[in-house]
Amino acid sequence: MKKLFIIILATFSYILGNGQEDMTSAWEMKLGHKILNNGTGLEDRGYSFAASDKEMTVFKNEDGKTIWTKEFKDIAPKLRKIDELIPFWESNTVFLFERKMGKDQIACVDIETGKLLWNTEKYQDVSEDVVMYIPEEDGFAITLKKELVFIKARTGEEVWSTVKFKGVVGKYVYSSDDRTMVMVNFIPGGLAAFFSGFKNQIAKVDLKNGDIIWENTYIGRAERKIWTKEFVYELEVKGDKVFLRLNGMQVYDLKTGATLWSAAFDFTPDGVAGGPSGTKRMGVYGAVADPYIVGEDIYVLDMSNKKNQYVKKYDLNTGKLIWTSPEIKDARAIPGMKVVGDKVALQIGGRVEVQYFRQYKSGDYLVSEWGKIFPEVKPFGVQAFNTSDGSLAWESEKFKKGITNAISFDNYHIVCSGKALYSIDIKSGEEKYEVPVAKGGVGQANMILKHKDDVIVVIGEKGVSTFNAANGDLICSGKYKDSTLEDRHEELVIMKTDKADIACFDLHTCNYKEFKAKTGSTTTLSKDGEFVYVYEKNTVTKLKTR
Phi-psi category of 363—alpha, beta or left, where left has phi over 0 and alpha has psi -120 to 50? Predict the structure, then answer.
């Protein structure tokens, strides 16, 4: 009996606490100045930077060796002080700003060499949010209060300006045949007061001279996430058509800009969720599921009315409405929609993404923080509709008290309530199994993810666990501390605490490597998930996640 107890205890200890190691250092570099600003370039780009308020250092990602260090007064003599520094990685440049009332100075510097390319005081109130680099033309499209200007990246020469395009250049499709671009405008979050006379615009522009070849309007709110900067819509050209996927689908003629058909609805997530205290800017994302295309059919959520919503099925080629589902009453968010076999499965309510910028007092200091959280939005539910006619196939009462999200495999539809995993027969709505996430020992689930073809990943309050999608059996678990999902790259999942401690989990074993950050340090995960860069006081450290 004693031997059996020891075996059970050893097994339990392995499940809850296996595989903790510290991240190993690839290199460490000490600078001759403080680090108040930093930027980490992609590994294939090969370099990053760290800057104080007086000087800047660019170093190699491979070994941390300095490429150059210069004082700002030597780089840009016309700027007496540096108020802001913004890198534009794709163009290999960095903008330096000296902010004055109506007399802002901008200096554009080559990041690789530290050479001043140009400087100007012609453009005022320029921020990162209103600049778009167009690599195909090696130029910047800069939105000002009264016009859009296009300048050459390396010389600052103004090529053209237009007052006919309002707002910031968003996602675009470039044509090398005639040097034209189809683009969508938008207002960055928190900058509505910057624009006057704004209207939703999709336009085709001649980049040689700025002429607007055609313009039309679009439905909805085109956005870029306020912190991570991903666009929350898709724009593409196929043949002679332009497809804009934004709260539905909108299709335009490429030659004339005429609307061919539209199945889009003007949904805004205002009031769906809020940010933490001290939030100055925020955006809510993922409150409405993207349209779902199957062959020649497209399924769209109609969220134009905040009290009554519908699923609608259209012919993708013609935009003809095939059917409308019964009302989905009082849903404030529908984050998930998937077509599995002959059913359209909906997740009503659950986790949405909130990105924010906030400021708060910590002792005598004013702390500025960018971040993201995943609050739950009520009410909750799971429904399925028949793809043939849109009729309600089934509705589950299981999730009225809570839901994080749902994922689908070829043969399994998995819904997480936060406390349990449910496998649901998509045809009938019948429950195949129910498994408490507590088996993983990482607290309640904040969300679930897919791994491979048959593994459920539970992102818990205190770590990561994995389950077999076929039967719900626990595969492995790694217990950590209070943390949230920071990033994911293939089999690597990064969890981060409020104090910027990082744990990198291997989903094959749920073992993890940890880095305990010092107070005041900032951490950046490389895009390939292999490294973490740590910036602290005057030291840069590159750590291996594996």
Answer: left
What kind of fold does domain 1-30+440-546 have according to CATH? Thrombin, subunit H (2.40.10)
pTM, full prediction: 0.86
Measured between alpha carbons, how far is 160 from 208 in angstroms, rounded to an integer?
A: 8
Query: What does the pLDDT profile of the chain (546 residues) look like in tens digits?
Result: 444 444 444 444 444 445 578 999 999 999 999 998 899 998 888 999 999 989 999 999 999 999 999 999 999 999 888 888 999 999 999 999 998 877 889 999 999 999 999 999 999 989 888 999 999 999 999 999 889 999 999 999 999 999 999 899 999 999 999 999 999 999 887 666 667 778 899 999 999 999 999 999 999 889 899 888 899 999 999 999 999 999 899 999 999 999 999 999 888 887 889 888 889 889 999 999 999 999 999 999 998 777 779 999 999 989 999 999 999 988 889 999 999 889 999 999 999 999 998 888 877 767 778 888 889 999 999 999 999 999 999 998 888 888 999 998 877 899 999 999 999 999 999 999 999 999 999 999 999 999 999 999 999 999 999 999 999 999 999 999 999 998 888 899 989 888 888 899 999 999 999 998 887 778 888 888 889 999 988 999 999 988
Assign domain 265-401 one CATH number from 1.20.1250.20, 2.40.10.480, 1.10.3290.10, 3.40.50.360.
Answer: 2.40.10.480
Residue 289: DSSP 8-state: P
Residues 6+ apart with CB under 8 A from 17: 479
Spelled out in words, what is the top-level CATH class assigned to the domain 127-264? mainly beta
Of the CA atoms within 13 Å of residue 66, those in its CB half-sphere come to: 14
Q: Name the nearest CA neighbour of 523 among 510, 537, 534.
A: 534
Cα angle, residue 485 at apex, residues 488 and 524 outer, rounded to 5°:
70
Residue 438 in 3-state DSSP? Answer: helix
